[in-house]
Every structure is written in C-alpha cells, then in structure tokens.
Amino acid sequence: MMPTILEIIVVVVVIIIITKSFRLQSLLLRSKQEMFGCQRFYRKRTDQLAPSEPQTFSLPAPLPPWPQGQGFALGKINLGELEAVKVSRFKFIWSNNTQDDKKGVTFYKPIGIPDGFYSLGYYCQSNDQPFRGFVLVAREIPFKSESTHISTGIASPALREPVDYTLVWSSNDGSEERFQGCGFFWLPQPPEGYKSIGYLVTRSPKKPKLDKVRCVRADLTERCENYQVILNVGTRFSEFLFQVWSTRPSHQGMLGRGVSVGTFSCNSCWVPGQELPIACLKNLDPTLHAMPNCDQIHALIKHYGPTVFFHPDEIYMPSSVSWFFENGALLFRKGDSVGQSIDVDGSNLPSGGRNDGEFWIDLPSGDRKNSVKSGNLGSAKLYVHVKPALGGTFTDIAMWIFCPFNGPATLKVGVMNYSLSKIGQHVGDWEHFTLRICNFTGELWSIYFSQHSGGVWVNAYDLEYIQGNKAIVYSSKNGHATFPHPGTYIQGSGKLGLGIRNDVACSNFFVDSSTHYELVAAEYLGDGVVSEPGWLQFMRKWGPTIVYDVSILPFGASVFHGKHFHQASS
After folding, report:
1. Which of 53, 188, 206, 436 is found 20 to 30 A from 542 (Cα to Cα)?
2. Residues 6 or more apart from 154 whose CB is under 8 A from it?
C-alpha cells in the first residue's frame, strides 16, 4: 500500500522547512563570524596558577587480567621501526582562562616519559570534560629499513631533533610590555626528510630548546587531518580566527595504518582540505601484533558487552538470523514472483558479487507474515565483526543486531506528532554499535552509536553503565537506531521541533550482548580462525526496495527503503 497524500505532503513540507532553516542558520553564523570574529578572547591577569583540574575519569570497575597472547594490552606497541608508549601524566603549561574555567582550554606537557622515549608534541583538552587524555611517546628500535642510504649503508635515524621552531600564535596582543599570563604556540621545523608530529606551548616568547621534542622520518608517518575544534579565538589584529583542533589519520578504515598520537593542530588561516604541517605515525608492523587474539576477543566481549534495551512499546523485536530463515523468510530473484525458502544457515543464498538488485530477501506470505514481523527476542543475538582501528592501536568491536521488520516513523511538528502509517517501514533491519578498545591497555575508549544514515562516537565517560564496565545501549522504537541515553531524539531540527522522532527508554525487553553474541568475522586473524556463517557473504538487500513516488507534487521527491548487512560493515 502507498502512503496517504497527507503523509507525503507533511513529509515534503517538513523537509523544505528543515532545509531552509539549516541554510538560514548557516548564513547567520557566517555573518556573525565575519562581523565579530567569533567569541572574544578573554584573559585573566594571573601568576599562571592552573585552573581547577578536571576530574580524572576511570572506568567503573577494574580491568580483569586478559588472556595471554601477542602484544595486546602490554602498555607499548611495536610500530615497525618505532616503539610507542601511551603517556597520561601531564604538567600544566597554559590555559586561555575565561570567566568560567569550565569553558576554557588547557595545554599540557607530557611528563613521566620512560627512559629512552621522546615527546612528539603537547596535549590539550577542554576544561569541561573529565581528564582522560593521552599522547604517544616513541623510541627507535632496531629494524631493517628501506630508507638505508645506498652510498653509505647507514639508515637515517627514525627520530631527530627539529632544526628550529616557528611561532604560530601568541595570546599577547601587543598591548602589554610584559608577557605574564600569555601562551606561545610553536611548530617544530623538521630536518629534511622528516615530519613534525605536534606543537609545543610555552609561557614566554623564548624558543623552546631543540631537545624538547623529536621529529619523525617521513616514511614512518601518515597524513593526518583536523577532526574536532577545541578552541576558537578571535583577535584584534587579524581577520582570521586562531583555532585549535584535535587530529586523526586521514585514512581511518580498518586497512589504514595511520596512528593517532594525541597531539593537537593549531593555525590561524587553515582552509578545509589543506594538508597540515604535522603528521601522525604509521604502523609498519605487518602482523598488527597488538590486536587481540581470539581468546582475548571473547574476554573483551564478556567484560564490556553492552545491554541493549528496546522501547517498552516496541512491537518489532529483534531475532536471530537463523530464526528468521527457519520461520519462513524467502529469497526472491528479479523476474520471478515465487520466493525460495532459505536454509537455516543461509548456505543456499547467493554469495559474493555486489548489490545489483538481482536478489533480495522478503517475509513469508500468509498467516506467518505478521508473526515474523514481530521478531523473537528470545532468539536474538549480536553478530560481532572485529577489526583494527587507527593503525592497529585500537580494536573496533562492531556488534550488529537483526530485526525482521522496521516499523513506521512518527513525525514531530512542534507540539504535534503524526504517526506515518507506511513511511519508514521496511523488511530486514540491520543496526549496529561499535566498541572501541585501546590496545595499549585494554580499556574501553568509546562507543559508536549508529543512527539511521549517520551516527556518533560517545566517550566512555559519557556512557551509562548497567553492571561493571558494561554500558547501556538504547534502541529506538520501531526504527531501532542506537542511542547512549533515554529520551526523545529528533532526526531533523531539534531546535525547531521538526523531524522524525526517535524514542528510547529502559524496559523489560533487552539483549545482553556479553552472553548473547556470535563472532562472525575478524579478518586480521587469518583464514579459518573465525567460522563465518553462510549468509555473511550475501551482498544483496535483506528486504525488497520500496519506492514512494511523490513526483505528483510540485517539489518532487522519493523515499526508498531496503537494507543489506554490508552497507556499513566494511
């Protein structure tokens, strides 16, 4: 059945209003930045007393002893020609003290560096978040390098001191004869063939000593990019903002070798897409020896596996894939109106290829259709894909849950709510969240919550925990998107109250992923280590594509539904 004309009109009007609202907000923001240069910089005259230190975050429960094996959670990671250690002890250097300390940003120098290791740059963070930062320090280890000079047979050292420093920015605006309370930001100038990895901050205009930091040979680095803005400062004498950013490797996929160092990037005239003057490290160890082995993976899931809560009014529950097949799911082929039953393990599904529209899965017909749509909570489990992240210094544990049916959406327009009888419905709903584990320590670092066409990373200190170090994941009513806290989330404009509702709440409907899971993929372990189910290589959609054609309206639009497991699993 097609959606009603009223539903279509309401959806299209809301889309237009939201789009225009976003454009207006963008224009107003741009105009405000051009007129006033963002927030005015404010500095207290102090004797450089550190602002109140943010509270240090620790996970709710101690970590267990992990099973033995390779280099996971040993405190250091071999990157090939460099060995890296995570340092989490810091000395206060400077802060842009504001009238509210919690709105400021503080810059720190790493301390407690192990003998033989060297700093690569300083660290900073906002004062309104718990203290859990780190930077990597490095030392050179013996390694047969391709960079050996042919003429001499001597390899260039992996680490070298900079040849100079460039002053990037200072908080002094020229109106003071003395520099008390000011911060000075320095970019190390690397020798030829080397890259700087981070910046230094001092409280005087005197250049830092050259031995305070090391630069890294270029072939041991990867390109990095600005990630999230930490600080915006408008100045009296420049039309540009001075900005401080967190950084990340430019290639973040599971095959990427870039390693985040924890340092920051800063500049006053950066253009999006422009290459930064600093780099991140590169993991040249082909074995990725710091990744967890199979026993360690199971121990991590047992220790950290979240509990997934479904809304108390949810009627479209999850199920296991085998239950879905066993209870009448059908495989259809283009041009054939009769579906084929699917083996319980999916062994008769076409494997490989691409999502070419030739095959799809659908619900059974007849009386069983509605019962299958409702799912079977008792059989539900999480399907786990484990993969390297950030050059093998972190492990991503992607946990997928399957729901036979995705229910209709609810549209919020101000204080009014409209239940859309058809729009949003589709067969075969795959949703996921991802645990990111630090391979230096085995700590849970953050969780990615998948939300329809997007998602968000949430730090461990912003999660809810149900038992020990097991977080809570909330699944939205009908749509099954994942969220870190209960409430109502608007997919659209929350300020205007326009968009699709995502309602999440605690209930008696839940799945404990620490016990109800199946490991289905971990490619880095090698062939045959993890037994992949037959259905995993089904590259087509797990439901028929439904197109809602609203071209009869003057604006024209279309909405389609249909998902497959591999849409976001790579």
Report:
1. 436
2. 148
Question: CA 397, 400, 401: angle at the middle one, nearest 5?
Answer: 145
Rounded-to-integer distance, Cα 84 and Cα 500, Å:
45
Residue 468 in this model has a pLDDT that exceeds 60 = yes
Phi then psi for residue 482, to 5 deg, are -105, 140
Count the alpha carbons within 13 Å of 152 in the hemisphere toward its beta carbon: 6
Can you tell me the distance from the alpha carbon of 51 to that of 56, in angstroms, rounded to the nearest whole number? 14
How does pLDDT run across 202-237, given as a tens digit for each residue? 999 999 999 999 999 999 999 999 999 999 887 554
3-state secondary structure of 218: helix
Residue 521's identity, in one-letter code, is A
- What stretch of H or E contains 32? helix 5-36
Pairing of strands 546-549, 558-561: antiparallel
DSSP 8-state assignment for residue 549: E
**Residues 401-422: tens digit of each pLDDT:** 999 999 888 888 888 888 777 7
Q: What is the dihedral of CA 101, 103, 108, 110, to 10 degrees?
A: 110
Check residue 196 and report its DSSP letter: B
How many angstroms separate the CA atoms of 362 and 332, rounded? 7
263 closest CA partner among 487, 435, 110, 34: 110
Question: For 66-90, what is the mean pLDDT?
Answer: 95
Q: Which residues pair with 548 in a beta bridge?
A: 559
Q: What is the mean pLDDT of residues 424-446?
A: 95
Q: Which of 453, 448, 451, 504 is nearest to 474 (CA)?
A: 504
Farthest CA pair distance, the chain: 85
13 phi and psi, to 5 degrees? -65, -40
Q: Are 404 and 375 in contact (CB under 8 A)?
A: yes
pLDDT at 23 over 80: no
d(CA 301, CA 323): 23
Contact residues for 323 (Cβ-Cβ < 8 A; gap 6+): 376, 379
